[in-house]
Amino acid sequence: MPQQRVVRSVTIADRQGLHVRQAVECARAAARFQCQIILVHGERRAENCRSPFDILQLGAGYGAEVTIEAIGSDAQEAVEEIATILSREFPN
Amino acid sequence: MRMSEFVIKEALIPNLTQTTKEGVIREMVESLKRSGHIKASQVESIVKALLKREQLGSTGIGHGVAIPHTKHEGVDRPIGTVAVSHQGVDFQSIDNEAVYIFVLLISPLERTGEHLRALENVTRNLRNETFCRFLRQATTADEIWELILEAEGSA
What we know:
Radius of gyration of chain A: 12 Å
Number of helices of chain B: 6
Structural class of chain A: alpha+beta
CATH topology of chain A: Histidine-containing Protein, Chain: A
Strand order of the largest sheet of chain A: 1-4-2-3
CATH superfamily of chain A: HPr-like
Distance between the termini of chain A: 40 Å
Low-confidence stretches of chain B: none
Order of helices and strands of chain B: HHHEEEEEHHH
Helix content of chain A: 25-40%
CATH architecture of chain A: 2-Layer Sandwich
Distance between the termini of chain B: 13 Å
Helix content of chain B: 40-55%
Number of helices of chain A: 3
Oligomer: heterodimer
Strand content of chain B: 15-25%
Largest sheet of chain A: 4 strands, antiparallel
Structural class of chain B: alpha/beta
CATH class of chain A: Alpha Beta
Largest interface: A-B, 23 and 21 residues
CATH topology of chain B: Mannitol-specific EII, Chain A
Strand content of chain A: 25-35%
CATH architecture of chain B: 3-Layer(aba) Sandwich
Number of strands of chain B: 5
Shape of chain B: globular
Radius of gyration of chain B: 14 Å
CATH superfamily of chain B: Mannitol-specific EII, Chain A
Mean pLDDT of chain A: 93
Number of domains of chain B: 1
Number of strands of chain A: 4
Low-confidence stretches of chain A: none
């Protein structure tokens, strides 16, 4: 499989902002892929999307734009899955 | 919002006695009640809210750390506490490892931004391995408090 670099921006849809549940779901999802996944919000970067600790450092509130960047053979699928989690509203 | 701004020093628990998820959450909420920051009449409702949140997905975020949290009408500002278990607790964490360090946070219903910033600061401190290692070795509330202040001072 060829290496791919896929970049996509999403808006945080959950009224609570990007917090623990999304961070844990993102980390779990990221762990299923081989590619490197980085999340960027403004000047903050989560270099390791497999770590909820890193993701929570983004401090992305409701309506914030987060860019997902993935590099690897399964980058496309990874970006789509992470984008789905970040742009979803989580029931309280 | 820094940890020292919402963590109640008088409610710190250097040696948890409970060893189950519900037991630990209850012990921490009871400690906040004893410190005078939660009314006795609110304890059950807060414990339930925290457990309901856990059912949606564990707040065990790996590396021996969990951050049970909820929003609740029983508080008028974010409050919380830190507890250490020396034997470890099965918390269904993301990495399936036992949890030794718990940071509990309760925020008012409408303070989403502040809640998020508090969680952000908690995780910033807790991703520091040295901080976690010393925290797990702490045996008194004063030691936990000193570690929190030291972590913030060096942040």
